[in-house]
Design goal:
Layout lengths: L9 H17 L1 H6 L2 H12 L1 H28 L6 H31 L4 H5 L3 H6 L4 H22 L1 H4 L1 H5 L4 H28 L3 H36 L3 H17 L1 H15 L4 E2 L11 E2 L1 H25 L4
Antiparallel strand pairs: 1-2
Helix pairs in contact: 3-8, 4-5, 5-8, 5-11, 5-12, 5-14, 8-11, 8-15, 11-12, 11-14, 11-15, 12-13, 13-15
Length: about 325
């Protein structure tokens, strides 16, 4: 006779397996760490000298600029600063650190991912990866996650330098949060940009050159369009006072401003200081018509996250398709 409770010893193991799957499904951080590509890339990057040399140069450049600005401000001001001078110095130091981080991340991030897929092709290991159980999305997200993890380390290590602004005053929690969000979005976007070019190119050098050319070209085109639309805006306002055309050109200028990380950060800070508003502004750019607009950092974050998502999908598609 077969015992009735023969299947009961298997129930705890099945329940434990089911609970582990549920825990893994509910914990996205654990799922990210379970990706073998992330662990391999992070260990390989942190074991070499390049990561620590880059971190040292990154912090050294920021610290050097902060020392120069501090000495300049201290030299032109009196020894006994009043609270207003201290707050201005704190804002200058904080803004300089954020802008330098945006500039450095814009150049470091594509270099970390431009050879992520092309290096596998050059080492002739890309076909081996495709024959494994690792999916194309896991490969792309693993490469992206490892590069972003290192850039997140760069952002966090610069926080002590940013904290010098809190000693002088003039910087609030809102500015700190907005700057951190912009830095994280910038790091993810430029990492994805390099990974996108690496997903369909055969060599690392063309992918790297294409990534930096796309960054430089986009900046130049946006600056030219900004001044062109601003010129058309001023000419149309001086010739005819048409509120509809004025609103349309103002929205176009505002959108172009928000697509540039440096201009978006500067104008968002100006709005926060002048109007004490973190999300919206009502000041007219040209003319006298008031137009309520979102702060540039909001448009910047939404736009860059959307483009990042599209580039991730395209990178996964390029990795999936067979090589010709």
């Amino acid at each position: 006779m077969i015992p009735e409770n023969q299947g009961t010893p298997m129930e705890p193991a099945a329940s434990m397996a089911g609970s582990s799957k549920v825990a893994t499904r509910k914990n996205p951080f654990r799922r990210m760490l379970d990706n073998p590509v992330i662990m391999k890339e992070l260990r390989g990057r942190m074991r070499g000298r390049q990561a620590f040399v880059l971190l040292t140069v990154y912090l050294g450049l920021i610290a050097l600029f902060i020392v120069m600005i501090y000495n300049t401000v201290f030299g032109v001001a009196s020894v006994n600063w009043n609270p207003g001078d201290r707050q201005i110095a704190g804002k200058v130091i904080f803004g300089t650190v954020v802008l330098l981080e945006l500039l450095l991340l814009s150049f470091i991030a594509p270099g970390l991912t431009a050879g992520a897929i092309t290096a596998e092709r050059e080492r002739q290991t890309f076909d081996l990866l495709r024959t494994t159980l690792l999916s194309a999305s896991s490969l792309v997200l693993g490469k992206l996650g490892s590069a972003f993890g290192y850039l997140l380390l760069l952002i966090l290590t610069a926080l002590p330098i940013q904290s010098l602004a809190f000693l002088l005053g003039g910087v609030g929690l809102g500015e700190m949060l907005v700057s951190s969000v912009m830095l994280i979005v910038t790091a993810v976007f430029f990492c994805t940009l390099g990974l996108f070019f690496s997903s369909f190119m055969k060599r690392t050098l063309p992918a790297t050159i294409s990534s930096y050319a796309a960054i430089l070209g986009s900046f130049l085109v946006l600056i030219m369009l900004f001044f062109l639309i601003a010129y058309v805006e001023t000419m149309s306002y001086s010739s005819s006072n048409n509120p509809m055309s004025e609103h349309i050109l103002t929205l176009m200028i505002w959108f172009l401003v928000s697509t540039n990380p440096f201009m978006a950060a500067i104008i968002s800070e100006v709005i926060l200081v002048d109007q004490q508003s973190l999300f919206f502004t009502s000041s007219p750019i040209f003319g006298s018509n008031t137009l309520y607009l979102p702060s540039p950092w909001i448009i910047y974050v939404v736009l860059y996250l959307g483009v990042t998502f599209i580039m991730i999908l395209l990178s996964i598609y390029n990795v999936k398709r067979p090589d010709r």
